[in-house]
Each structure stands twice: as structure tokens, then as C-alpha cells.
Amino acid sequence: MDVIWDFDGTLFDTYPGMMAALRAVLAGYGDQRTTEELLVAAKQDSVRAILRDFAQTHPDATLAGLDQAYHAKEHDTNLQPLPYPGARTALDAVVKAGGRNFLWTHRDDVAWRLLDRNNLRGLFAGGTTISMHFARKPNPESLLYLQREFGLSATGRSWWGTAR
Fold first, then answer.
1. What is the pTM of this model?
2. Sheet holding 158-161, edge to edge
3. Cβ contact 158:1 at 8 Å
4. Options 3.30.470.20, 3.40.50.1000, 3.10.129.10, 1.10.287.3510; which CATH number does 2-13+83-161 get?
5. pLDDT, tens only, 49-104
């Protein structure tokens, strides 16, 4: 069985740093939502959607400016995220069963560096990052790339993994 894994919130506990960064950026514009409220919104849609919606309702904010500020702040708040406790076990189980693990993330190549630092990269056969310039999720462009590049089945031998 081949498994395609998301990075943030599935393999690595990056949400605390992501939400701290989002909260700090939006608070700079007077937004009063709590970190918990932002987390619920982010899981229902995405951080990018929150920034987009915020920019549409705040004339002093632009999506490009919010996005740049968020990524700069998130880089500082998420320097040492850790994998979830079950991540290694789940990845090992796929490999031991004769399957392959693949990464699908909006993160840049820092995802691979974090996998390296935590001795997990060797458990991956490949993957995609935002650095490869595929359309953002939920567009299937990067999944179709993985399917073509690695011969993944579209009917039954591949699935979306969650380590938590």
C-alpha cells in the first residue's frame, strides 16, 4: 500500500506555531480572534483562506502583504516542530508492509529538512512541495504528478495518511 502524507498537522505538530504567527499578524490589524478560533477556521478551510477573507474585508490589508507577513512570522515561530508521536510508527508500518510513503505539502523544502532532522526522510519514496510550483490544494495537479512519476494506483492501493 502506498500512502500520501500531508505534513502540517498530520506528520508534524506545526499548528501551534502556525496559529501563533497567524494570530500575531491579524492582531496587528486589530483582529480579536483567539488562537483557538483561528485554528478551527484553519482546519475548516486553510490559513490562506483566512488571510484572503481578511484582506477582502480590511481595506488597509492586502493578501500579498498578509501572506508575506504570515510566512515571515511562521518561519520564526515554527523553527523546531516535532513529528507526532505516532508518525514514525505509521511510516515504518507502510514500509514494512511493502508500501511507499509520499509527501504532499504546501511547505517549501524545509519539510524535507525537518524529516531529515528527525530521521524520517529515508522512509519516503518521494513527494511534492510548494517549491515544485504545482497548483495549491485541493487542485490535484501534484497528486497526478505523484501518480505518474511513481506509478501510484488511482484505485485502491494508495490512500491519504494520518499519523495522529
1. 0.80
2. 124-128, 101-104, 2-6, 158-161
3. yes
4. 3.40.50.1000
5. 999 999 999 999 999 999 999 999 988 887 789 999 999 999 999 999 999 999 99
